[in-house]
Specification:
12 strands, 2 domains, alpha+beta, five-stranded mixed β-sheet, single chain, three-stranded mixed β-sheet, Trypsin Inhibitor V, Chain A
Length: 198
C-alpha cells in the first residue's frame, strides 16, 4: 500500500501543476479576447482633414464616426467666422470610431486686451510691448523734448488712451516721442511736430 501511494504521489503533483498551467493559459486567452473586443481593436479609421471646413455643418451632421467638440475660439481676420482652424487628433491619424474630435474655430470678434502704459519708456521698448500683446505701432509723432526717444503720449484714433483701457486685438497705436530740437527736420507741422508713417 505504501509503495502504491509513493507511485501516485509525484504524478498527482505534476497533474496539479499541469492543471494550474492550463487554467492560467485559458484565463490569459480569454482576457486578450475580451480586451480586443472592449477596445474595438482593428476598428480604427483615418482622421479626415477638417481644417478650413465649416464648423456648424460638422457640429450639426449625423456623423456616427466622431463626436465633435469645440475646444476654443480664435480671432483670425483672414478666415471666415466658423471655419475650423485646428483639430485634435490631427489629419491622417488613425483613431477609434466614436472618438471625440476637438476643434478650434475662427471667431469674428477680436479679443479685448488692456492698453499698456507706454509713457516714459523708450520707443524701442514701446514697440516691443505693443507687439507682445497683439497691438500694432501706427504713426510716430516726434515732438521737441528733453527726453530724447522717450514716449510722451499714446494715442488711439487721434486721442490719448489711458493704460488699462480695453482695446481690440490688432489695433494701431500712435506714439508721441520726444526728440532734441536740433535733431528735428525742417519739415515740421504747425505744432512743430514731425509725423513718421509706419
Amino acid at each position: 500500500m505504501k509503495n502504491l501511494k509513493a507511485f501516485f504521489m509525484p504524478n498527482r503533483m505534476g497533474f496539479h501543476l499541469l492543471l494550474a498551467l492550463v487554467i492560467t493559459v485559458i484565463i490569459a486567452v480569454v482576457a486578450i479576447i475580451f480586451l480586443k473586443s472592449y477596445t474595438r481593436h482593428g476598428q480604427e479609421i483615418r482622421m479626415p482633414n477638417l481644417i478650413g471646413k465649416n464648423s456648424e455643418a460638422l457640429l450639426n451632421s449625423d456623423n456616427s464616426d466622431f463626436i465633435f467638440v469645440v475646444s476654443d475660439y480664435v480671432f483670425d481676420k483672414s478666415m471666415k467666422e466658423g471655419t475650423v482652424l485646428k483639430q485634435n487628433p490631427y489629419p491622417e491619424e488613425y483613431v477609434k470610431k466614436g472618438r471625440k474630435i476637438y476643434l478650434t474655430i475662427a471667431s469674428s470678434e477680436p479679443p479685448k486686451i488692456k492698453m499698456p502704459a507706454l509713457n516714459s519708456v523708450s520707443l524701442r521698448q514701446a514697440e516691443i510691448m505693443l507687439k507682445a500683446i497683439g497691438l500694432e505701432v501706427g504713426d510716430i509723432i516726434y515732438k521737441p523734448s528733453p527726453y530724447k526717444n522717450a514716449v510722451l503720449d499714446q494715442l488711439y484714433r487721434g486721442r490719448s488712451i489711458s493704460a488699462g483701457t480695453p482695446i481690440n486685438h490688432g489695433e494701431k497705436i500712435t506714439l508721441v516721442v520726444g526728440k532734441d530740437v536740433e535733431d528735428l527736420l525742417d519739415t515740421t507741422d504747425s505744432t512743430g511736430s514731425i509725423i513718421e508713417n509706419q
